[in-house]
Amino acid sequence: MPDRQDPSPLPATWQRADAGILPLWWDRLCSQTSPQSAALFAAGLFTEDRRRPIAQWYNAAFDSALLVAPETSPEWPVQRFGIFYAPPGGGFTQVHSAPHEWHPREPRKSPTEREAFEAAVAEAERFLQVEMFFV
Fold first, then answer.
1. Pairing of strands 64-70, 55-59
2. Rounded distance, CA 135 to CA 130, Å?
3. With contact defined as beta carbons under 8 Å apart, do 102 and 111 qualify?
4. Dist CA 10 CA 24 (whole Å)
5. Which pTM value belongs to this model?
6. Which of 18, 16, 29, 28 is nearest to 52 (CA)?
């Protein structure tokens, strides 16, 4: 059986910043849509910094960011974490990935919220490792 290797470290330019959602997200989303549309995007994620957990990385050198956060309304029967990317130079996009979902009505059934979040974070970190080759 092959040895499992630890993933490569993240590029040093990407710093984790989970305290609060960066204003960059709102600015980028509004630049692509109207403030009214931006307020509705991902169940109000960018207007109300209340949805947790989040994982966020910021690259000050390129003014870019990556975010893992809940993208569905809290009342939906299936919850999902989305990965959002603000590339260098402007813009905003959602990274399409495997669904990182959990069922809040069955909190102990796998995948749990924690398992879904950890899987989304791992995928986001893989994205950052690949992203450094294109910037």
1. antiparallel
2. 10
3. yes
4. 21
5. 0.84
6. 18
Residues 83, 123 contacting (CB under 8 angstroms): yes
Contact 68, 45 (CB under 8 A): no
For 62-65, the CB contacts below 8 A with 24+ separation are 62/13, 62/88, 62/89, 62/135, 63/24, 63/88, 63/89, 64/88, 64/135, 65/22, 65/24, 65/25
Tens place of pLDDT per residue across the chain (135 aa) = 444 455 566 666 899 998 888 999 999 999 998 899 888 888 788 877 666 899 999 999 999 999 999 988 888 899 999 999 999 989 989 998 888 999 988 888 999 999 999 999 999 999 998 876 665
> What's the burial of 37, exposed, middle or buried (CB within 10 Å: 0-12/13-18/19+)?
exposed
Residue labelled with tokens 């470290």:
9
Write the CA distances from 104 to 9, 49, 101, integer angstroms. Answer: 32, 20, 10
